[in-house]
Amino acid sequence: MHPVDAAWDPRLASAADADEIARLLHDFNTEFDTPSPGAAVLAPRLRKLLTADETFAIVAGRPAVAVALVTLRPNVWYAGRVALLDEMYVVPDLRGRGIGSAVLDVMVATAAERGTDLIEINVDEPDVDAQRFYERHGFSGMDPGTGQRAFYYWRERLT
Amino acid sequence: MHPVDAAWDPRLASAADADEIARLLHDFNTEFDTPSPGAAVLAPRLRKLLTADETFAIVAGRPAVAVALVTLRPNVWYAGRVALLDEMYVVPDLRGRGIGSAVLDVMVATAAERGTDLIEINVDEPDVDAQRFYERHGFSGMDPGTGQRAFYYWRERLT
Description:
2 copies of one chain form a homodimer. The first copy, chain A, is an alpha+beta fold. Chain A has helices spanning 18-31, 39-49, 99-113, 128-136; strands at 11-12, 55-60, 66-74, 81-90, 116-124, 150-155. In chain A, helix 1 (18-31) crosses helix 2 (39-49). The longest helix of chain A has 15 residues, at 99-113. The N and C termini of chain A lie far apart (47 Å). Chains A and B meet through helix 2, strand 3, strand 4, helix 3 and strand 5 of A and helix 2, strand 3, strand 4, helix 3 and strand 5 of B. Strand 5 of chain A pairs antiparallel with strand 6 (150-155) of chain B, so a sheet runs across the interface.
């Protein structure tokens, strides 16, 4: 992997970056055939989320070509908070240049500054490239005690 | 599975339940050889968490013999919040009586009342009993678009 060009300048996003992040997230879901409500719905949500302290985003490039979106929550096992990397995206044309690594490094440092004790990510089972990427950055897919992996389960339609 | 005895009375926990929940969570980790800071550390954390609105717990029995612990956070893809079932435990002697199902039902209803659009759980890969349990309750381990499962990844020691 090449050292990332300083011009990408990974940085903490503000509410002013909401439109660009919304576009990236919409493109992300479109690329992977996942439904998206569209950038016009995502942008006002992001503007609100990025002004509160439960969500932060790291972006790179002007205009933004990569984003990491993180939510924070409390957890009984830790004195600090737990962060979940909800989304991580680099535009297709610019992959393999270290931009994702640079964004991830800033994301981890930002989470630490905000009193986070643990960062979590859900990674698709067949996406071994992503698994290797996160393992290179200090993440593990195994329980330290049991050596077991865990699957992500979900339910919508709660009523 | 038997219909759960109404005497177990699954209900929303208050800060007054913190000591009993702390004991259950400590026993949970002890049973599964996972480190625990001890009930004396967990109890004051729970007292604080259960008075804020990012965490709720459902307990059953007096004294409590089962607990579900949930944290809520915002998410860009949903107008409402996303819930994560962080912990779910029934004491060993009382398993197989439907107490877990009753607690889970109340947990889902409580999450819905609190404006949750999605509930997430991480389930150990070899624990097919737990996977079936959650599938019976409407949870899925697969992405609806791709049919893929996802693994849980984590990192501590952020600096």
